[in-house]
Amino acid sequence: MPPTERHRTPMWERIANNLRAQIVDGTLVPGQRLPTEASIMARYEVARATARQALRQLINEGLAVTQPPYGYFVRRRQQFSFQPQQEIGAEPEPPPPGRHPAGFRHPDQATEVAIVLPPREVVDRLRLDPGELAAVRRRIHRMERKPLYLSESYFPLAVVQDTEIMRPDAMSTGIFRVLAARGYRQNRAVDEIFVRMPVPDEVRQLALEPGTPVAYHMRTSHTVTGAPVCVFTNVLPGDRYVIRYELPEDVEDGS
Amino acid sequence: MPPTERHRTPMWERIANNLRAQIVDGTLVPGQRLPTEASIMARYEVARATARQALRQLINEGLAVTQPPYGYFVRRRQQFSFQPQQEIGAEPEPPPPGRHPAGFRHPDQATEVAIVLPPREVVDRLRLDPGELAAVRRRIHRMERKPLYLSESYFPLAVVQDTEIMRPDAMSTGIFRVLAARGYRQNRAVDEIFVRMPVPDEVRQLALEPGTPVAYHMRTSHTVTGAPVCVFTNVLPGDRYVIRYELPEDVEDGS
DNA sequence: CAGTGGTCTAGACCACATC
DNA sequence: ATGTGGTCTAGACCACTGT
After folding, report:
1. 8 Å CB contact between B185 and B58
2. Fewest CB within 10 A of the end CB: N or C in chain B?
3. Most confident region among A47-56, A81-90, A240-249 by mean pLDDT
4. Helices B11-24 and B37-44: crossing angle, nearest 10°?
């Protein structure tokens, strides 16, 4: 770049701004191919690294994807509705997400059961002692072989020892009923939703594209005495899910 | 790189993996300085661009920040609890977030009122005609001058024409009460939470660091007849907020 | 002044898919 | 063979900060 021109905003950012504007105003529609690196180099008279940085910026914003060796494309979006069960007694593992485009058939899921040292946020919520182990049921939920979201259910070992919950198959009766039969009656729960970038393992399992954040949805259930019974977690890719809560009707004027 | 070595995983990714491992296992603690680009170049015998890409990857994962010209640092985290009002009659604009570290003083907010063509997702939920305008109250919520989150409230013009809601100051009585006095009694609401990367305008207003996703929390309130009355939105940075719902107690066994 | 990261250039070789 | 993006090198100049 000639030194005559003071660049207040870097060239790569101006290129990214141009392309972004075309995406948001509909000049470039989802699925459409973006200019190649070579054409950006020619169009703006920049080096390849500069053109790449502009395109990388759009990827980081979640607006574009790269599909080598075909080029860069405007990202397509289709989001499902993820509606957490709002009745505590209901089966806590959410059923297949609420709304699917026509053509989607049977949901699929793979379950595994393990005894692990839970992550810190689960230890805190189950009030486990340091180093105390817990049982976890892990699932990858898929739709037509494509991964949709991850879920985990953590239980203190004492709660689920020798129950049906420890078997990966056969959970016909439902976790809530099994726990209630053992005296763990849940009547209070707290949902927490964290928003963060995925860790590489989540990127791999969910086949996430760069620039895709996830919602980490965490439900802690308690008994009537306040003792935590279990922690359910869901990792919901931002490009596939919208979390939805219906608020209970209010009969009184709250003012 | 010598051609003797087939690089299955790129060098920049291996460097990033090394650094990430040190962050997650606590060798590098939040706030600590990461190796400089120059030292990575020397340590791994790579060009500067390769060292930069490794560090850029950590930034994109939300694990690191750059503070030129001081260097790269492990990202600090402190999250507040954002608890949406779950009683529909309550003041819909959420009060200052639930838990603050000691030392935080008075919350601050700047409000503006405008008449705009709302974004598409608001048009859909308010069932506006194409091109129909709406009133919006926009706020930047701050704590000790630092931006925390953005909120917007959209109303069809007919609903709020000539009401106190159109004035940026003085909303002493509460939006719910003002609307109820005009015959818009809300008794049903739906919360939707989108997870996405911020647009550049949100990055600017909230001073977001690269690699920070946001939760877009959207509440649509309806009257008893099912007509939408207003849409409240919040843009909650993932590095500052955890969204929290307390589920209503359940007196019956749901199974 | 030296050291830091931000930006940019001008090349190179590679894997991959299409023609 | 051609064109695509992925990776990598070896430089350059800049702005900013602290010494």
Report:
1. no
2. N
3. A47-56
4. 110
pLDDT value for A62 = 92
Considering only CB atoms, which chain B residues are within 8 Å of A210? 60
Residue of B nearest to A59 (CA): B197
- Name the amino acid, one letter, at B10: P
Where b means 16+ CB within 10 Å and e means fewer, A115-144 reads eeebeeebbebbebeeeeebbbbbbbbbbe
* Protein-contacted positions of strand D (CB under 7 Å): 3-17
Q: Rounded to an integer, what distance in angstroms lies between the CA atom of residue A58 and that of residue B45?
A: 30
Question: Rounded to 5 degrees, what angle do the CA atoms A16, B215, B171 make?
Answer: 110
Task: Return the pLDDT at A168.
Answer: 67
B211 contacts A215? CB cut-off 8 A: no
**Among A10-14, A155-159, A174-178, B53-57, where is mean pLDDT lowest?**
A174-178
The answer to whether A53 CB sits below 7 Å from nucleic acid chain C is yes
Q: Tell me if B213 and A213 make a contact (CB, 8 A cut-off).
A: yes
Rounded CA-CA distance A61/A195 in Å is: 15
Q: Is the CB of B71 within 7 Å of strand C? A: yes
Give yes or no for a contact between B63 and A227, defined as CB atoms under 8 angstroms apart: no
Mean pLDDT value across residues A136-145: 89
Q: Distance between CA A28 and CA B167 in Å, rounded? A: 39
Is the distance from CB of A221 to CB of A193 less than 8 angstroms?
Answer: no
- For chain B positions 195-214, those within 8 Å of chain A (CB to CB) are 195-197, 199-200, 210-211, 213-214
* Cα A229 to Cα A220: distance, rounded to the nearest angstrom: 8
The residue type at B179: L
Six-digit token string for B164: 């106190």
Task: Read off the pLDDT of residues A158-201 as tens digits, 9 standing for 90 and up.
Answer: 888 877 777 766 565 677 777 777 777 778 899 999 999 998 88
Which DSSP helix (H) or strand (E) runs through A215? Answer: strand A214-223
Q: Does A107 touch chain B (CB under 8 A)?
A: no
Tell me, what's the pLDDT at A158? 85
User: Which H or E run includes A141?
Assistant: strand A134-143
Compute the nearest-CA separation of A209 from chain B (Å): 12
CA B215, A221, B89 angle in degrees (round to 5)?
55
Mean pLDDT of B71-92: 77
Q: Are A243 and B219 in contact (CB under 8 A)?
A: no
Residues of A in contact with B12 (CB under 8 A): none
Q: Cβ separation of B244 and A193 shorter than 8 Å?
A: yes
Cβ of B243 and A180 within 8 Å?
A: no
CA B38 to chain centre: 35
Q: Identify the DSSP state of B248.
A: P
Question: Which residues of chain B neighbour A250 with C-beta distances below 8 Å?
Answer: 87-89, 187
pTM assigned to the model = 0.85
